[in-house]
Design goal:
By secondary structure, the protein is of the alpha+beta class. The longest helix is centred in the middle third of the chain and has 17 residues. The chain starts with a helix and ends in a 5-residue tail after the last strand.
Length: 255
């Protein structure tokens, strides 16, 4: 009997770090009910979708290699608003979920790193996560992806490692990075938008149940505390209806 998405999400504490998602995993992985490649099998491209111009960083560098926590003040709190809704009738995601992820920030060992205590969701939705010690990068992206991964793998009855490898490969080879502007406390800040569809062309597309079109969109801005502005995973039906939207937004009231 398939376990519920919530049970899967609560099964282990989320202690993943940005490096765990940035790294390439070349070990074999099994896909749903069969042995399969650990990647999408496309030809190699420049590392981390190398920036097409000096002003535009690669997705990997932008999301995982920058000291994103350097502009967060010790003693402060970062709050991220989380929402999830699914158009799958009687699906495992259940009713819409709206909650928050809160970071309590303390000094790390270096000027650019921080110790971070995490409250991931509240009440019965609470998911054990962290803490993170001496972190230069913002772990909220990894927490979002790991939680999303557990839900999607449970829905598709798939090996989480297979899906994780596809997302990693998508960040390296399929992501587009474009400059964008971000509204922040009455100002307009310069930032970047990262977008990808990692499952398109996957050899097991027929097992994805429509989720092969999932689009991931990440917005970052160096001047925003923690740099992460918004994260989104969205899957549409062929008729335009929504299979799933998961979204995380930085709450500007806390900074």
């Amino acid at each position: 009997m398939r376990r519920s998405i919530l049970a899967v999400a609560l099964s282990t504490a989320l202690v993943t770090t940005p490096s765990a998602w940035a790294a390439s995993d070349t070990a074999p992985a099994t896909a749903p009910e069969t042995a399969a490649q650990g990647s999408t099998g496309q030809g190699s491209t420049s590392k981390d979708s190398a920036a097409k111009g000096s002003a535009v960083p690669s997705a990997g560098d932008l999301l995982f290699e920058q000291p994103q926590m350097k502009n967060t003040a010790p003693g402060s709190t970062l709050t991220y608003d989380y929402s999830r809704r699914s158009g799958i009738e009687r699906g495992p995601y259940g009713p819409p979920l709206n909650d928050t992820i809160k970071f309590t920030i303390e000094p790390g060992k270096s000027a650019e790193s921080r110790d971070i205590r995490v409250q991931m969701f509240s009440g019965g939705n609470r998911v054990p996560a962290g803490p993170f010690t001496d972190m230069p990068g913002n772990p909220v992206l990894s927490l979002f992806l790991e939680n999303h991964l557990k839900g999607l793998a449970g829905l598709l009855e798939a090996n989480p490692r297979y899906i994780k490898n596809a997302i990693r490969k998508g960040l390296r080879e399929k992501a587009t990075v474009t400059p964008t502007q971000v509204a922040f406390k009455g100002r307009t800040l310069e930032g970047f938008r990262v977008e990808m569809q990692p499952f398109l062309g996957d050899p097991l597309t027929e097992r994805m149940r429509g989720f092969e079109t999932t689009t991931y969109t990440f917005v970052v801005a160096p001047e925003v505390p923690g740099e992460i502005v918004s994260l989104q995973a969205r899957t549409l039906k062929p008729d335009g209806g929504e299979l799933l939207e998961e979204r995380l937004d930085y709450d500007q009231k806390d900074s």
